[in-house]
């Protein structure tokens, strides 16, 4: 009976040690935790909000938001302002094209 209690207590202490050693980040505006085989911290982007701002003056805002969302998800960047400044996001954003070989990202 005493060995069972000791074994149970050891397992509980081990589980508590595992739970307390996990990485926790409360500030979701700056970083998010990516779990899996390759654990790393990635910058968190609000693609919806950034693209809404980017496409606010566009003549076709729904089309612009859809394309901007795809580009934001793939390139992890949305240029500042409502137009131009595409170079601020690098070659991923500037080189992405549609099936018709036109630039995809607004």
TrEMBL record:
InterPro entries: GASA. Residues 1-21 form the signal peptide. Pfam families: GASA. Keywords: Signal. The keyword Nucleotide-binding does not apply. It comes from the Eukaryota. Belongs to the GASA family. This is Gibberellin regulated protein. It comes from Dillenia turbinata.
């Amino acid at each position: 009976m005493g060995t069972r209690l000791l074994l149970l207590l050891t397992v509980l202490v081990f589980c508590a040690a595992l739970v307390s050693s996990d990485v926790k980040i409360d500030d979701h505006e700056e970083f998010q935790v990516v779990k899996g085989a390759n654990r790393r911290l990635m910058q968190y982007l609000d693609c919806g909000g950034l693209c809404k701002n980017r496409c606010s003056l566009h003549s076709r805002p729904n089309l612009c938001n859809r394309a901007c969302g795809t580009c934001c998800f793939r390139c992890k960047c949305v240029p500042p302002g409502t137009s131009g400044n595409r170079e601020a996001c690098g070659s991923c954003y500037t080189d992405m094209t549609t099936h018709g070989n036109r630039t995809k990202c607004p």
